[in-house]
Design goal:
Blueprint lengths: L8 E8 L6 H13 E8 L26 H14 L7 E5 L8 H4 L6 E5 L2 H12 L4 E5 L8 H10 L11 H9 L1
Parallel strand pairs: 1-2, 1-4, 2-3, 4-5
Helix pairs in contact: 2-6
């Protein structure tokens, strides 16, 4: 059983662009691991050609907001989980085409709960999309005042300002190599 006597789930999914994967992403994966036997980590915007604009998030499709390739992000996520002591048997990492729900079953079994931390209209839109497609969302409230931003991390790296505290151990070295 998990907290509050909620039955343990076999699988929960966590999706994101992870540009880059940061400490709050790792925290969300930890929450998923506490609720499920396995976690699927779906990396959105895996291909430049598949990026689409959306009114709830004006920047998500832009090249400047997506400097890391799918393979770089996959390596960064895996390095962070390894450094955090997460056994490889507890997770899988896969491309996740958020704007193409007809492709979701290729990556995530239908009916798999989707864990989403909600900060803005964009995350509310993700919750709506998952629910409409039959992937029950588990929405967690996010505090906008303490939100870690991939945009800010990328800005700080480019400006030579401190950023390392926002990226988990294991991932820092890879992020520095990829974005420096």
């Amino acid at each position: 059983m998990t907290e509050g006597n909620t039955p343990r789930l076999p699988l929960v999914a966590v999706t994101g662009r992870f540009q880059p994967f940061h400490v709050q992403h790792l925290e969300l994966v930890r929450v998923a691991l506490a609720r499920a036997d396995r976690v699927l980590i779906g990396i959105t915007n895996p291909e430049a050609a598949g990026r689409r604009a959306h009114p709830a998030s004006a920047h998500r499709h832009l090249a400047v907001a997506n400097p890391l390739t799918y393979e770089q992000r996959r390596g960064i996520v895996a390095a962070a989980l390894e450094a955090d002591g997460v056994p490889q048997a507890r997770y899988a990492i896969a491309p996740f085409h958020l704007d193409e729900p007809e492709r979701w079953p290729d990556c995530v079994p239908p009916g798999t709960p989707q864990l989403v931390r909600v900060y803005s209209d964009w995350e509310r839109e993700k919750v709506r999309r998952f629910a409409a497609a039959g992937y029950p969302p588990i929405a967690l409230d996010g505090d906008a005042a303490t939100r870690v931003s991939g945009t800010e991390i990328r800005r700080r790296i480019a400006a030579g300002e401190p950023w390392e505290e926002w990226v988990p151990p294991g991932a820092r070295e890879r992020v520095a190599r990829c974005l420096a």
